[in-house]
Amino acid sequence: RLGSYNGHNGSVWTIDVNWDTTAFVSASADSTVRLWDVQTGRERNIFKLEAPSRCCAFSYDGNRILYTNDDVMGKPCEMYVVDIRARPSEGASARINITQKQLRKVTSSLWGTLDEFIVTGHDNGELVQWDLKSMDEVRREKPHGGQIMDLQTNKDMSFLISSSKDNTAKLFDIETLDHLKTYVTERPINSAAISPLKDHVILGGGQEAIEVTQTSVQTGKFEARFFHLIFEEEFARVKGHFGPINTIAIHPDGKSYASGGEDGLVRVHHFDSDYLDYDIAY
């Protein structure tokens, strides 16, 4: 361990690093969102909310962040957009009452192409696209039958992949939210990532954490699972975790990936030459 970022007093649910990895933002159950200096660990700013914060994300240009809070303790679910160059006293540049728009709690979020819109995933399986100029929804789809756990884009931000408790991950056109591909498993999927190097996606999940103590590693399905992006077929699994995989991130060069699990471990896997050299002709 190189160091720790100390400040939160509750579970940290989401972190996101800006484009040049000089800063990151974290959302926590302690009802705060914090902005950090990556190199020094210094807390640059703190945004206080009246309910636990579930999601946060840096804009592509690194000048704005979005974050959300849960609909608990009588508080509505809301989404905020903040320009981090402004003084903290100026507050959020935009604030949307999600609950008021008859939408369920936001469970995942990301910025769209050129920071012109935002896409949110909800606990009832809905995907919603928000226009940043009008700060209103422009598209709403319901592709999943369960909570959307994670949203990630591909390298050029033309596609997004969603992972859900309904045992599927799905690929969409990020601008139109047109459904393109589906990757099916027999266990909830908590995270899905698109390789920047190959036409592959990596899925992570497994049996619900509450049931893990009653389950063997073999039947819990805790492997990272590899699917072909286009053919939607599974072709490999990587074992290692002794509990559900909560998050997966692929290195920008596509030659390694990291997975974080309910077992308290973060595993970093480097692909061997056989994987990097192999390709499917089609």
From TrEMBL:
It comes from the Eukaryota. Keywords: Cytoplasm, Initiation factor, Protein biosynthesis, Repeat, WD repeat. One of its GO terms (molecular function) is translation initiation factor activity. Transmembrane segments: none annotated. SMART domains: WD40 (SM00320). GO terms for biological process: cytoplasmic translational initiation. One of its GO terms (cellular component) is eukaryotic translation initiation factor 3 complex, eIF3m. The keyword Protein biosynthesis applies. WD repeats lie at residues 5-46, 141-182, 238-268. Belongs to the WD repeat STRAP family. This is Serine-threonine kinase receptor-associated protein. It comes from Adineta ricciae.
